[in-house]
Amino acid sequence: MSYKPIFTITPLLLRCVEAIAAERERICAATVEVPWIPVLQKDARARNTHSSTAIEGNPLTLEQVRAVEEGRELAAVDSRAQREVINYFAGLRFIEKNVKKHPIRHEHVLTLHRIIAGNVMDQGEAGRYRTIRVRVGSYIPPNPEDVSGLVFELLEWWNKYASELSPVLSSAILHYRFEAIHPFADGNGRTGRALALWELYRRGFDSHHIFSVDEYYWENRPRYYAELQRVRTEGGDLTHWLEYVAEGILITLQRVWKRIQHISASIQGERIRLRPRQEQLLQLLRDRGGMQPKEIWNALGVSRQGAMDLLRPLLKAGLICREGTHKSGRYRLSTPDRLSRRRKN
Q1: 209 an active-site residue?
Q2: Are 305 and 160 part of one and the same domain?
Q3: Tell me: the pLDDT tens digits for 80-134?
Q4: Which of 50, 113, 175, 182 is catalytic?
Q5: pTM higher than 0.85, yes or no?
Q6: Which of 16, 45, 117, 139 has the fewest CB atoms found within 10 Å of its own CB?
């Protein structure tokens, strides 16, 4: 028997879901042909990584998280904190590569946990369900011998019935239920939030991967934990949790719209129509974090001059930036912050 969530579609929840649909439609219409989607993708990945790890106590700032993604060295920063961030970036890449995976099975959840929690667990083993009793504040999750069966029931619901609901609701339900089962000895919070994001991706809700919902949870962490606990005190009724998550997704989309407007305003007068190789180049920079000129022309199969012809319009529009010396410099995607500074200058 699969898991059966308990909730009520309240007027507040319905209004919120309708507002989310309208906001998402506006964003999707704006991003159909925009050349700076990779900038937003990179920004969202950094924000999700920073927020989800910070909720669990990671001390790195958003700018330090961005530095880690770009391979820059951070002096006097705890190696475990950096490893947590590196792991979470890898977990997001795993999700992006498996966005269409169906059905999701135990091994996929275990692999995701192994990536996220590898070498940073205080107890237990990454990629294996817990064999010990655990406690989360005043909450005592199910016995370890029940974990595998409960996860199986949740996966059965996810694979067979989640699609009957709005992805806003199904991702929130998946998020809560995973945390309630608490299948691992450590790393459940990060893994649960990553699974919720996976559901938004695989349902096509965030098809461009530019939303950072975890940022909303991080900004008021006490409320996040209180809303999780509220479900337990209300006998497993998810209604208020769904309202809370829907509120967060709506705020997230409103912020994305503002970032889209901000970036658009920052490059007005420099609008360009991307050629296929420029789209390919932006994707390469997004995936690799940065590339030297020689790496670019080798990857694209063009001459040095051909690579520069592709790069100049992107530099002029502020979509990419160059760091380092003329000989050893690297090209990277610009961030919204860099575009903002460029506009001011």
Answers
A1: no
A2: no
A3: 999 999 999 999 999 999 999 999 999 999 999 999 999 999 999 999 999 999 9
A4: 182
A5: no
A6: 139
